[in-house]
Amino acid sequence: MILILSEKFDIPTQNIITKLDNYNAKYRVIYGSDLLEKSFFIDVNQKYIYFDDEVIADITVVWYRRWLSYKFVFSQNPDEDRYLREEFESLSSYFMNNITSKRWINTPPFIQPYPSKSTQLQKAVQAGLNIPNSIVTNSKLFLNEFYESNKRSIITKNLNNPYFFEKGNEILGTYTTIIDDEDVKRQDNIYFPSLFQNNIIKDFEIRIFYFLETIYSYAIFSSNNSKTNTDFRLYDFNKPNRIMKCELPNEIELSLIKFMKSLNLHTGSIDMIRDISNNYYFLEVNPQGQFGGLEEYGLFIEEDIVKYLMFQH
Question: What span, in angstroms and rounded, lies between the C-alpha atoms of 256 and 282?
């Protein structure tokens, strides 16, 4: 049986489920929130899971896609919410460690934490990929030196995941941001450590979905839109960016495969850019990044994933 572990309402997961149904495949989906909404028990001695009136057994392949939405609220009390979230992560780790399967696609972060962006950059260089000039610092002095040495054109981004928060009726996030003179001047001499990079003038952005050594890549032409020029994830729904399938140079694909293997990642959404001199730069990988809806561009990601899952089964 195929087992999918995911987050409720995740669109790529729903697309995969639809295709599995079309093939009459035998599968089971467990969402992170199910551990809080459906009955289960884990027999510690026999190491098996009884979940929602069914023993979870005869699993041939497990695909860890996602788990629980960051928006999930365990308690209105902040301290209690933090405590229950930590308890849930421990529960999730134990739950997944008790799933017996011949094959896992991606190790859950509860068992093996995903690498930070700074670690990703180091691994990318070791794999032969170009990266932007990058520093992590908490010093105004070093920031100013980096700013000046990169022609006063730098950006900052999260060391790990974006932080999302509500303001009025909007949900805002800490996306990639351009740093200017005033930003540098108003920093304290010592501030919270941050990642800074030189701001590369890009020809276009490249989103790559990686699945077990297969590369699916498409170009995103975001440079001419002031809203998406710095970070294409700041979508402009009124003027969507043009996208098209693209082929990466063979040496870039080989380096990406080497990079993903070094992080022990079987799947992930990779962001790269190509500059106006045709140089390729690695930016980051999100092991749980979005994908799909690209069949009209000749990228049959969901179909290939379903066929792989069924072959394992």
Answer: 9
Residue 298 counted as domain residue? no
Task: Tell me how far apart the alpha carbons of residues 32 and 47 are, in angstroms, rounded to a whole number.
Answer: 20
pLDDT value, residue 100: 85
Nearest to 278 by CA among 196, 208, 206: 206
- Burial track 186-212 (b if 16+ CB lie within 10 A, e otherwise): ebeeeeeebbbbbbbebbbbbbbbbbe
Whether residue 165 contacts residue 230, with contact meaning beta carbons closer than 8 Å, is answered with no
Question: Which domain covers residue 171, as residue numbers?
Answer: 133-198
Nearest by Cα to 218 from 153, 291, 149, 145:
291
**What's the domain count of the chain?**
3
pLDDT of residue 240: 58
Q: Residue with structure tokens 């026999």?
A: 46
CB 281, CB 130: distance < 8 Å: yes
93 and 150 assigned to the same domain: no
Asked whether residue 306 is assigned to any structural domain, the reply reads no
pLDDT at 225 over 70: no
Q: Average the pLDDT over 269-275 and give the result.
A: 95
3-class SS of residue 96:
helix
Residue 28 pairs in a beta bridge with: 3
CA–CA separation, 190 and 166 (whole Å): 28
Q: What does DSSP assign to residue 116?
A: P
Distance, CA of 199 to CA of 207 (rounded, Å): 18
Residue 100 and residue 159 in one domain: no
In this prediction, residue 70 has a pLDDT band, given cuts at 50, 70 and 90, of confident
Please state the rounded mean pLDDT for residues 122-129.
Answer: 97
User: Residue 41: beta bridge partners?
Assistant: 50
Q: What is the pLDDT of residues 177-217, one digit of tens each?
A: 899 999 999 999 999 999 999 999 999 999 999 999 999 99
**Would you say 67 and 6 are in contact if contact means Cβ atoms under 8 Å apart?**
yes
Strand duo 177-179 + 242-245: pairing: unpaired
